[in-house]
Amino acid sequence: MLDRYVKPASDIAAFLICYSPYDILLLFSRKLIIAGECVMELKKALFERRSVRQFEEKEVEKELLQELLIAGMWSPTAGNIQPWMFFCVTERARIHRMRVVSPGMLGNPQALICVCSDQNRAFEKAGQGGKILALMDCAMAAQNIMLRAHDLGLATCVIRSFNQTAVRELLEAPAHVLPELLITIGYADKKPPTPPRNTDLIHWEYYREDDNG
Question: Over the stretch 116-153, which tens digit does the pLDDT of each residue have?
């Protein structure tokens, strides 16, 4: 069935074994096959991704974490500043210490990525406006990371409620590196239900009280 298209197909033989002729035809017709690898449809990833706080006691492979980091680096960035730094943490003791200073971190994540901004680089490239631009770039990088994680069968939750100074010290990062967001990562133990979205917040052309999109 179509839910199988999230599985990798690294070579032709494996691909033909994993997918029926009908699935292959349908996947090609929907442009879901790129260079021999099956990828999740963007709309599917956007609508199905959830913030997950309960994870299985299962290690996340380093190769998958590397994929997340690459996805973050390919996010949009103002003026190509690339003001971010990515710290990937898998040591259980370090994750535990971060939980102590992060009220927003729940559950038992098997890994986490701290998306940081390089304040020196941001100021050098954009002056006083660099701080907010760096935060925006980090937020977009975090979204890339979470969508790629969902594509790979991983679950995530983004966190802003933490002590930035304490997290920076735990990362042993210099003073100009500012932790902006934490992303907890693992295999979902329980996926929360999809919350409704308020379409009344959409306006066309200009603000209207009764404009529902």
Answer: 999 999 999 999 999 999 999 999 999 999 999 999 99
How many angstroms separate the CA atoms of 143 and 145, rounded?
5
Query: Residues in the chain, how many?
Result: 213
85, two tokens: 């730094």
Is the separation of the CB atoms in 130 and 50 below 8 Å?
Answer: no
pLDDT tens, 151-180? 999 999 999 999 999 999 999 999 999 999
- Measure the CA–CA gap between 140 and 85, rounded to whole angstroms: 13
Closest CA to 115 of 77, 151, 152, 79: 77
Question: Which residue ranges make up each domain of the chain?
Answer: 2-39, 48-186
Strand ranges in the chain using DSSP code E only, listed in sequence order:
33-34, 37-38, 84-89, 111-118, 155-159, 177-186
> Residue type for 135, please?
L
Based on its alpha-carbon atoms, the radius of gyration of the chain, rounded to whole angstroms, reads: 20
CA 19 to chain centre: 28
From the options 3.40.109.10, 3.40.50.150, 2.60.200.30, 3.10.150.10, give the CATH code of 48-186.
3.40.109.10
3-state secondary structure 52-93: CCCECCCCCCHHHHHHHHHHHHCCCCHHHCCCEEEEEECCHH
Among 93, 75, 66, residue whose Cα is nearest residue 154: 66
Stated as kind and residue range, the H or E segment containing 151 is helix 130-151
Would the pTM count as exceeding 0.85? no
